[in-house]
Amino acid sequence: MRSMENLLRKGVREAIKNLYGAEIEDNLLQVQKTRKEFPGDLTLVVFPLTRITRMSPEQTAHEIGEFLIKNIGAVSAYNVIKGFLNVTIAPEEWASKLYLISEVSDYGATPPGENSETIVIEYSSPNTNKPLHLGHIRNNLLGFSLSRICEAAGNRVIRTNIVNDRGIHICKSMVAWKMFGNGATPESVSKKGDHFVGDYYVLFDKKHREQAAELEAAGATPEEARDNAPLMIAARDMLIRWEAGDEETVKLWHMMNSWVYEGFDVTYKSLGVEFDKIYYESDTYKLGKEIVLQALNEEHLIRREDGSVWIDLTADKLDHKLLLRSDGTAVYMTQDLGTAVIRYNDYHFDRHIYVVGNEQNYHFQVLSLALLRMGFRWASGLHHFSYGMVELPEGKMKSREGKVVDADDLISEMTDTARTMSQELGKLTGYSETEKENIYRQIGLAALKYFILKVDPKKNMTFNPLESIDFNGNTGPFIQYTYTRIRSVLKKAEETGIEWRHGKENTITPNQKEINVIKLLNDFPAMVTEAASELSPALIANYCYELAREFNQFYHDYSILGEADNGSRNFRIRLSDLTGRVIETGLWLLGIEAPERM
RNA sequence: GGUUCCGUAGCUCAGUUGGAUAGAGCAACAGCCUUCUAAGCUGUGGGUCGAGCGUUCGAGUCGCUCCGGAAUCACCA
């Protein structure tokens, strides 16, 4: 549509010049799509022009309309309603538009060029003490989709993950395993490694609360009880030994982390997300400390009497923020400083996008400012992609209390639902069980992914585990279904030996349903660009839905292969083919697979 | 209390730099399969866009003030 809009803009510009002898500013030239209730394709908002024309909006619109009809070939009709000039583009123009864009290879994607940016995207960032849950799913899907969208918009993208593999929370599951595990392993109890370790994290919390309750009953304050419970002492003790490099502790840490990684790999694989480079906090926190100490020497920071190191951000309306503890150990911020510097040295990125929940808005404000203050100018390219939380009807998810929607469980439930539905419909005859299972998986995941990605990332979303995610209507499977219909038509066309690609009839006058689809197809490249600049997978998701819906109407009202006129039939096949390709690309940008049949 | 974000149909969500009579899906009801896949298509009902004031020819969209919800403001990550 953009190219058509530009055509109209140019025409209006000429009209104003010829009729009123005036040049017009861009912001007064408002061209938009015509709303469905009104006849026409594009609408010029005339109100802003009346200042120049010195006539009523209606009169202005009529004069410009007349001029367009006479001078712009593509414009076939116009009408005026109030201050709106609705312009109809000749159906033949849409037809030739389709021929044009259907010949473009990788339609919608821009290859990297001179002006391409290098963008590092960090997402996922799990803790290695518990399995992934629905919140992580949102993070992973957003991050992965963003990476593909940025790539399609012509950027070089590096997908990274920072694994939070050290700290007191990791030690908690280690302590619990050591004390209550009796040497069990994921293999010995046949449990996925991340779930296995996560169970000990939950167990730690349970036992710790029991101990704290005992201490409280014996007269301790709640804080004392929490801090002095034997398990908590053991965890802190283990952290100190870990930082000191104690051999036995480090060995245990390696072993338990490797269990978790094996589990994560399975989940990442079934979610279909990937990374180019994985960073570990245990590798980056030391550099963070060095950077802070160096900046301290250069007088960017403040050292208090107790030895702790701070940055003063009151000038930026923030607070004083701790960068190193009084005992010299690192905090969360310290390691993020280190990670950012390592990444810049690795990739010299133009932009660095952190896909992290909105609970950490403050943290990332501080991170950028702190780096800038320390003289790292590239830190202006840091961007916190802040997304909303996924909540349960009863509130926030809590791993420690086991109140979570587990990622693996949810994925397999989605597959189960897809299997049940598909078997009821019974359309997969001729496929092997393996092929069928793969399709169930694709459909189930599509439902889940679309459900999450269609929502504006900024907004918190509620997930009710009791209400299943839909497979009909505005859903991922609906879009996939449209794709399979198209594939089915194209396959049949091929089997029948129709050579539709050679047809380039210029005599086609498309009907309204066809035009509606072409308009949307024509929008696709602009949608990808916009989704990249807005960082919004939701734009792509909603676009795909709209396209699928529009195509289904066309599909319902007209026969494609049954069309008697060969030119018209070939045109419809071409339309279907491009729609299929755009849907496939659109879904790909969302990380959703497009099955041939379902 | 400070800062940031959110509030649109019973539910889940769209709504482009301000533009026309605020749109989808789910749920409810009524239709459409001897024709390319009915996970589809068509129709009906459902709204003081949290409230008010302001800016404007024009406000769901911008500004201000309230109301409601969330996050954050740790020598936790």
Walk me through the structure:
The protein has 598 residues and is α/β, with parallel strands linked by helices. The protein has helices at residues 2-20, 50-53, 57-71, 91-102, 134-152, 168-180, 193-217, 222-228, 230-243, 247-271, 281-297, 332-347, 361-373, 407-425, 433-453, 476-496, 512-534, 537-557, 566-589; strands spanning 30-33, 42-45, 75-81, 84-89, 118-122, 156-163, 277-280, 302-303, 309-312, 320-324, 351-357, 382-387, 390-391, 461-462. A hairpin with a 2-residue loop joins strand 3 (75-81) and strand 4. The longest helix has 25 residues, at 193-217. The protein is globular, with a radius of gyration of 30 Å.
Task: State the main characteristics.
single chain; 598 residues; alpha/beta; 5-stranded parallel β-sheet; 4-stranded antiparallel β-sheet; RNA-binding
Structural class: alpha/beta
Largest sheet, strands/sense/barrel: 5 strands, parallel
Quaternary state reads single chain
Strand order of the biggest β-sheet? 7-6-5-11-12
Query: What's the helical proportion of residues?
Result: 40-55%
**How many beta-strand elements?**
14
